[in-house]
Amino acid sequence: MKPNHITVPASDPSANASADKPKVTLGNLFRRPETGSFIGLLSVFVFFTIFGGQTFLSISGAASWLNVAAELGIIALPVGLLMIAGHLDLSVGSVIPASSMTIAIVSGHYGFPMPVGIAASLALGLVVGFLNGYLIVRTDLPSFVVTLGTLFAVAGLTLGLSVILAGSTSVALKSDPINKMLFGDFIDGKFEVILLWWIAAMIFVDFILSHSKYGNWILALGGDKISARNAGIPTEKLNIALYMGSGLCSAFVGMCQAILYNSAQVSAGQSFIFNSIIAVVIGGVMLTGGYGSVIGIVLGTMTFAIVNQGIYYTGFDANWASLIIGVLLLAAVLLNNTFRTMALTHATPRAKAKESK
Amino acid sequence: MTAPLLKLSGINKSFGPIDVLHDINLEVKAGEILCLLGDNGAGKSTLIRILSGVHKPTSGELLINGKPMHFNTPRDASDNGIATVHQFGGTFPLMSIGRSFFVGAEPTKRWGPFEVFDRKMANDIAVREMRQLGITRITDGNRLVGGLSGGERQALAIARAVHFGASVLILDEPTAALGVKEAAHVLRIVLQARKKGVAVIFITHNVIHALTVGDHFAVLIRGAKAADFRKGERSRAEVTDLMAGGEAMAELEAEIESHL
């Protein structure tokens, strides 16, 4: 017999919720949304430690995958927020080279001061993001189609304008020492500065998602758009702001790449489209929205980066990395589904005890 | 005390050439449950949408505390204390109880220059409000809404409406998707809400549920009020006959008319 959950006396003076603190138990730990991604990260780390050996574990080995993780991670965070809100952003793949080219053409080709180039390339990201958000809100078309459109449009625009303005698809950029140090240098000769920016982005996005009211809005928007709107959330503004966030972050990564490599190419960045989605999904964010966490996204990004770089430390052909990523993605989605179901069936010990009878 | 909190007088609604509601007069007082009965297509949903500000009546008046009201958006209705709880609660299965309780009205506290979502307060209030409605199983506001039963989700939605100061609570078929025991739980919660002085409009096509909790009943047939009676004035069989038979009669009349 099911326990009778409802007792009639309404104003129970002993009804004090804070008396029952949630306990940290193994069961509760397994119900965290990040558990699946943590297991994934742990298993690939162990795998490459075994097959990659000392060099994978060395500082330069760590630097190689952390550098990849940082660039991807800065984009995966806002893309993850968008996915939690129920949207995709494919246009990141062409915002990266577009912003690289913008700073290279403005500050490299035309020789304007670096801050002007930086501002221009970040502004470009914001404009593309605004356009994405505005089009999706106004037309109510699926974000997949809209951002696929802007992906190609921006890529074409970048190529066309680069040839017209700079006469080339590759432009050199010489940065001043301060901006080089801030955006495109190495710490200790191994770790890219962008790692610090990634950590800053993590803290900021975690604040937004878990500790501000906007996080609640994002979760609600991805959970049920109509209910969210009825609850008084400005869903349209929120959508546009989220797209501007992913545009800004993609532009930031593109700008940092141009400063790091001292040049920009029109073709860089396409790999980030799917890599960011993979990192976010491995991180336990639900593709259809309404669920996810920053820790999960960070773990997913690190998992992806380890597989992507770790393969070079093993004796295997690097081509096998894609196979591992593919299998990992499927396993992660299955695992995350399982953990989500566990979180939903989270029962109190009392109720569980009765069930097992 | 005796003045009706919400009053509808002579409400008509038509969509183009189709008359959906015809001359509806209803009133509900604070601490009273008005049951709105009717089969599918009787106009119950349209009436709810008028009450909750989604549609505007073609003619007629909606009065709150004797004051005529004009709702342009659902927001207007909720600002005037009218809260609607839909069949599935309108909640977010993958959000925590505390978070979904406060969607759109998050409590925040200052932390240096930042405004921080006060999760502890949100959780505590959500759990406390649900307890007040008799849901004692829930002690942790961090749990996901999807882990609640259908009845508990209704309770969460009702608790939310009451907490945010709803004086008129519209429940749209709250028991329709529930099993017998769960439905009984929800009916108790409806009684708890009434005890708090809320005026409840309970929409259902389940005569038994209606007669169990209702103080005042109105039967809608084909967009018109076919009966209006108080508790104890009609038996269950009479009400069932009225709903089914009345509908059949109207159909028959329409058929005869079309043959002439």
Q: What are the secondary-structure elements of chain B, in order, as H or E?
A: EEEHEEHEHEEHHEHEHEEH
Question: Main beta sheet of chain A: strand number and arrangement?
Answer: 2 strands, antiparallel
**Assembly state of the chains shown:** heterodimer
Total DSSP E strands of chain B:
12
Look at the structure and give the mean pLDDT of chain A: 85
Low-confidence stretches of chain B: none
Tally of DSSP β-strands of chain A:
4
Supply Rg of chain B. Answer: 20 Å
Helix content of chain A: over 70%
Shape of chain A: globular
Strand order across the largest sheet of chain B: 6-9-10-3-11-12
Q: Any idea of the CATH class of chain A?
A: Mainly Alpha
The Rg value of chain A, from CA coordinates, equals 23 Å
* Unreliably modeled segments of chain A: 1-22, 347-357
Binned strand content of chain A: under 5%
The end-to-end span of chain A amounts to: 10 Å
Folded structure, characterized:
- The complex is a heterodimer of chains A (357) and B (260).
- Chain A is mainly alpha-helical.
- Chain A has a single domain, classed as ABC transporter involved in vitamin B12 uptake, BtuC, CATH 1.10.3470.
- Chain A contains 15 helices and four strands.
- Chain A has helices spanning 26-30, 35-57, 59-84, 92-109, 114-139, 143-166, 177-183, 194-211, 213-223, 225-230, 235-261, 271-282, 294-310, 320-344, 349-355; strands spanning 170-172, 186-187, 191-192, 263-265.
- A two-stranded antiparallel ribbon of chain A has the order 1-4. In chain A, strands 2-3 form a two-stranded antiparallel sheet.
- In chain A, a hairpin with a 3-residue loop joins strand 2 (186-187) and strand 3.
- Chain B is α/β, with parallel strands linked by helices.
- In chain B, 36% of the residues lie in helices and 28% in strands.
- Chain B is built from eight helices and twelve strands.
- Chain B has helices at 44-51, 74-79, 97-101, 119-132, 150-163, 180-195, 207-213, 236-259, and strands at residues 6-15, 18-28, 33-38, 59-64, 67-69, 82-85, 108-111, 114-117, 168-172, 199-204, 216-221, 224-230.
- The chains are: A mainly alpha (357), B alpha/beta (260).
- Chains A and B meet through helix 8, helix 9, helix 10 and helix 14 of A and strand 8, helix 4 and helix 6 of B.
